[in-house]
Specification:
Length: 422
């Protein structure tokens, strides 16, 4: 079965999710192995937005309490994907210092590069798309200068809508975020990567805002295909625009908004926009949830299930992972929670390959996944590499489209885990 064209969604106001009674705040949600080190103890009181764990170095980010309360436990929890992470459990109690307060506004243009970079690091901002601390990404780009900044409002799969809705509803904050990046990393022109149906009026308004700030900006509409928001895909599609210049920095509207909130409003990264969808959910929505909120709370806020879900996926059906339970918390890199029906997951017994060609048509790299799978099953790894295995990004589109339900991605990722690929 081919990847669905796009699941229906009616955009509306992105609401603040209810505050969790207990927040399960992860000490690490980046791809690196390092976790932040707790600076609080069990039984201690914490304020909303207070630093509770400090970065342990490159690849880890500062962690702040999303709610005021009491530190109940410092423990570990198995996250989607199977990795265990340290968790600080905070029980809601006390008064708020952020919620319901008029946000502070700093004249950030009077800050120098060092001051802004300190704020970015201190507030613990993480790029939701690249799963890396934003401070690390900006530091790596600060030397060359002149690189394009791509605002990636495209989505990885047919369900999600959060990034384009953020771009639609908070355009000025996204513009400010781009201007802040330009200040600290000397970025060049801005490229808005948007869906074909993104409103032209919104694009025109944003381009006018960029012009007022003195930033050169263009909008590029992408032919809709899933997956389509991965770095190499964007760079390849934008090659005529990028020409032979430096590689771009690719950031999502949600990351740019978090950057704006940190520098302009002195707000730590304690919230995340999460798309809630799937056929088993009563109501689709985009909620601005506090980090550490159990996904079960968000499911309840969307009206609960209309029937038993076949699978609950965090971050989409292609590259996401099954949630072990509804206690799994929202992290800084949680983009979506999908409660999928049996029809949507296309659950079926594994059969022999029928050479239908769906995996070939779905592969964004132009590979032949069925051939790679057979070569690996026969132990012919060298030949699989010659056929392009090293170009596989493990996006999952082939496995989702496969009529025979072959474990394609598991086979490819397993070969990588065994160290057979460089």
């Amino acid at each position: 079965m081919a990847v669905p064209h796009r699941a229906p969604f009616s955009p509306g106001t992105m609401e603040n999710a209810f505050l969790p009674l207990n927040a399960y705040v992860p000490l690490g949600d980046c791809d690196g192995p390092h976790e932040a080190r707790p600076v609080v103890s069990e039984g201690g009181e914490v304020r909303e937005g207070q630093l509770i764990a400090r970065s342990s170095g490159k690849g880890s980010a500062n962690v702040h309490s999303p709610i005021p309360g009491i530190v109940r436990r410092i423990t570990r929890m198995r996250m989607p994907g199977g990795r265990e992470r340290g968790i600080i459990v905070v029980s809601l109690e006390g008064s708020f210092s952020v919620l319901g307060k008029r946000p502070e506004r700093y004249l950030w243009k009077s800050l120098n590069k060092t001051d802004i970079m300190h704020i970015v690091q201190e507030k613990g901002i993480v790029s939701v798309g690249q799963r890396m601390p934003l401070h690390d990404l900006l530091a790596a780009k600060s030397s060359p200068g002149g690189f394009p900044l791509v605002v990636n409002a495209l989505e990885m799969d047919a369900w999600r809508r959060a990034e384009e809705e953020i771009l639609r509803s908070r355009p000025l904050d996204v513009t400010d975020g781009c201007a802040i990046v330009a200040r600290v990393a000397q970025s060049g022109p801005v490229i808005l990567a948007v869906d074909p149906d993104f409103p032209q009026a919104s694009i025109d308004s944003m381009l006018a805002s960029f012009k007022e700030t003195g930033i050169e900006a263009v909008a590029e509409r992408f032919r809709r295909r899933f997956p389509q928001d991965m770095r190499h895909q964007l760079e390849e599609a934008l090659a005529p625009v990028l020409k032979d210049g430096p590689r771009p920095l690719i950031l999502e509207p949600s990351t740019l908004v978090a950057l704006h909130d940190a520098v302009v409003s002195n707000k730590a990264h304690i919230e995340q926009y999460v798309y809630m969808g799937g056929g088993a959910l009563k109501r689709q929505d985009i909620l601005k949830a506090r980090i550490g909120t159990p996904i079960g709370d968000l499911v309840e806020e969307c009206g609960g299930f209309v029937g038993p879900p076949e699978r609950i996926i965090v971050n989409g059906p292609f590259r996401g992972h099954s949630a072990g339970s509804l206690d799994v918390p929202v992290t800084k890199t949680t983009r979506a929670v999908l409660a999928l029906t049996r029809h949507e997951t296309m659950t079926a017994a594994t059969r022999h390959c029928v050479r239908c060609g769906q995996c070939v048509r779905s592969c964004p790299e132009g590979l032949s996944p069925h051939l790679l799978y057979k070569l690996l099953a026969a132990g012919r790894t060298a030949q699989a590499r010659a056929e392009g295995l090293g170009s596989c990004t493990l996006c999952g589109a082939c496995a989702y489209s496969c009529w025979s339900r072959l474990p394609l991605v598991e086979s490819f990722s397993g070969d990588r885990a065994e160290g057979n690929l460089g």
